[in-house]
TrEMBL record:
Job description of the protein: Required for accurate and efficient protein synthesis under certain stress conditions. May act as a fidelity factor of the translation reaction, by catalyzing a one-codon backward translocation of tRNAs on improperly translocated ribosomes. Back-translocation proceeds from a post-translocation (POST) complex to a pre-translocation (PRE) complex, thus giving elongation factor G a second chance to translocate the tRNAs correctly. Binds to ribosomes in a GTP-dependent manner.
Protein family (similarity comment): Belongs to the GTP-binding elongation factor family. LepA subfamily. Belongs to the TRAFAC class translation factor GTPase superfamily. Classic translation factor GTPase family. LepA subfamily.
Protein's name in the database: Elongation factor 4
Source species of the chain: Mycetocola miduiensis
Amino-acid positions noted as binding GTP in the UniProt annotation, renumbered to this chain: D16, H17, G18, K19, S20, T21, N132, K133, I134, D135
Length: 596
């Protein structure tokens, strides 16, 4: 295809603002998918995505569109919508010349939209502002058109008004994509360079790599080379998704399509990498390639210890389709055998645990999420700590923790309560900006460790669900952090150790000792439960000794939230854990870890 008749674009939208519905509608309107073949949410492939209504993996679809007697190829590149996948978003954007900024006409701009819009502007994309869901009675297109125009410049009249549901305005939108978004440019005679913007594992075909051609040409059966690793693969198939995969005679400048080489692991075909040919390799890789680093760590343990081999196999399988998942075996006194896993963020953690539970039928418990600390001891040694149990004993010279820049968007009435929350999480206010009449963006720097815990839940409940949040890494900072251990009769219970700010150590100690007191059954002797920083005890409770005449079932406590998990436990299989002389049912530990 002549690059002047190609348009590459993506849709930037907040979760639920209707990106999938609009994408479906475009497939219908352009005839790429016949109505009778229309599955709801064609682009969201994984079941879990469909059920939760979120898009995890980006893909591309080619659609024909005619304007003034000329047929254009429109390549729509899907972008993931969540903070944890910013790197993938940035690569999808880098594959485009333009973006549709899609905003719900009853909601207005949200933090995530803003973050992705800034990314698109950094990539010099042409932005087409669009208000969606204008069929809704609550829609206020005039108000939000002004808001959008304020944000990106231009006049409110330039903001298109559409409904993905009814199809209103969608044809005009497709025309505007052709008119406004620049065509791709590249050098057809240069050595081939294609940027990988997505890499998906398929059980039958192996890895499917989605690329945007920058220069040159790739042909079927050619030998291709990954520029980051120099690995060479044979091209078994090359084609475009329209939206069913269809093989082509190759891909040229500006085109978007897929490659299949028979590799079985997405790590061999990494997002952001440059593909060239082995025969005439390019010498210069495309800019922007990085290896995404895990930011959040958690131990995953099977509730039923005999499921350990199943968990191991499941992680090995998931890794094939998720290049950013990391894990290594770990054992815990309280929880048995499991894995220490590294994730891009909290949602990534949630998605992985949910997939493990659903696709592999596992019941899992996750330990409290932790971040990466750089701990320097008095003798000038620095260790990287992703698990509190690795925190060095003895004198500590300094501890560095990862920081993030946080953007929160909310109605202005909630500013007070949001500030209170952020200050309580050691946030430093960077700035505050009004959008439209009633919405405010608050920007903070904050330790990542303070938001991985339950920040988002608190933010949502303080703002009745109206606040939206975005964050990005922003270096590291030293802080007065300590490790708090929890001891049962003087024995440390590993899964409960936490690295916290010194000012919060006491509160953590009190919380955990009280919680365990309620959950640990009485023994023949008194069991002290202590919280300690090093050798210093900061909180203490105790479980009194059992009286000989008491037969009653003796542990209880509020475990209703995790009842679902507990019910699933096989009857008659109450596994007891010994901590020193103290006998504790594993479910007490599980309840304490997951308790509110
Ligand atoms: P994510 O995949 O989570 O990012 O969501 P999305 O932005 O793709 O939203 P989706 O298309 O799943 O739509 C979210 C909800 O809005 C669904 O319940 C849709 O039925 C509804 N919706 C989408 N477009 C329209 C529209 O034009 N009008 C109305 N009334 N509802 C719409």
């Amino acid at each position: 295809t002549d690059p002047s008749f190609i348009r590459n674009f993506c849709i930037i939208a907040h979760i639920d603002h209707g990106k999938s519905t609009l994408a479906d509608r475009m497939l219908g309107v352009t005839g790429a998918v016949a109505d009778r073949d229309m599955r709801a949410q064609y682009l969201d492939r994984m079941d879990i995505e469909r059920e939760r209504g979120i898009t995890i993996k980006s893909q591309a679809v080619r659609m024909p569109w005619e304007l003034d007697g000329q047929t254009y190829a429109l390549n729509m590149i899907d972008t993931p919508g969540h903070v944890d996948f910013t790197y993938e978003v940035s690569r999808s954007l880098a594959a485009c010349e333009g973006a549709i900024l899609l905003v719900d006409a009853a909601q207005g701009i949200e933090a995530q939209t803003l973050a992705n819009l800034y990314l698109a502007m950094e990539n010099d994309l042409e932005i087409i502002p669009v208000l969606n869901k204008i069929d809704l009675p609550a829609a206020d297109p005039e108000k939000y058109a002004k808001e959008l125009a304020n944000l990106i410049g231009g006049s409110p009249d330039d903001v298109l008004k559409v409904s993905g549901k009814t199809g209103a305005g969608v044809e005009e939108l497709l025309d505007r994509v052709v008119q406004r978004i620049p065509n791709p440019v590249g050098n057809p005679d240069a050595p081939a360079r294609a940027m990988i913007f997505d890499s998906v594992y398929d059980t039958y075909r192996g890895v499917i790599t989605y690329v945007r051609m920058i220069d040159g040409h790739l042909s079927p059966r050619e030998r291709i080379q990954m520029m980051s690793t120099r690995a060479v693969h044979e091209l078994l198939e090359i084609g475009v998704s329209s939206p069913e995969p269809s093989p082509t005679k190759g891909l040229g400048v500006g085109e978007v399509g897929y490659l299949i080489t028979g590799v079985k692991d997405v790590r061999q075909s990494k997002v952001g990498d440059t593909v060239t040919t082995a025969a005439k390799p390019s010498t210069e890789a495309l800019p922007g390639y990085t290896d995404p680093k895990p930011m959040v760590f958690s131990g995953l343990y099977p509730i039923d210890g005999s499921d350990y081999p199943v968990l191991r196999d499941a992680l090995d399988k998931l890794k094939l389709s998720d290049a950013s998942l990391n894990y290594e075996p770990e054992t815990s006194v309280a929880l048995g055998f499991g894995f220490r896993c590294g994730f891009l963020g909290l949602l990534h953690l949630e998605i992985v645990t949910e997939r493990l539970e659903r696709e592999f039928n596992l019941d899992l418990i996750a330990t409290a999420p932790s971040v990466t600390y750089e701990v320097t001891t008095d003798d000038k040694k620095t260790v990287t700590v992703t698990n509190p149990s690795e925190f060095p004993g003895g004198k500590i010279a300094s501890v560095e923790e990862p920081m993030v820049k946080v953007g929160i968007l909310a109605p202005k009435d909630y500013v007070g309560t949001i500030m209170e929350l952020c200050q309580g999480r050691r946030g430093a206010l960077l700035g505050m900006e009004y959008f439209g009449e009633d919405r405010v963006e608050l920007r903070y720097t904050m330790p990542l460790g303070e938001i991985v815990f339950d920040f988002f839940d608190h933010l949502k409940s303080r703002t009745q669900g109206y606040a939206s949040l975005d964050y990005e890494p922003s270096g590291a900072q030293t802080a007065d952090l300590v490790k708090v251990d929890i001891l049962l009769q003087g024995e440390q219970v590993d899964a409960f150790s936490a690295i916290v700010h010194r000012d919060k150590a006491y509160a953590y100690g009190v919380l955990m000792t009280e919680r365990l007191k309620k959950l640990i059954p009485r023994q023949q002797f008194e069991v002290p439960i202590q919280a300690a920083i090093g050798a210093r005890i900061i909180a203490r409770e105790s479980v009194r000794a059992m009286r000989k005449d008491v037969l009653a079932k003796c542990y209880g406590g509020d475990i209703s939230r995790k009842r679902k998990l507990l019910e699933k436990q096989k009857e008659g299989k109450k596994r007891m854990k010994m901590v020193g002389r103290v006998e504790v049912p594993q479910e007490a530990f599980i309840a304490a870890l997951s308790g509110e």
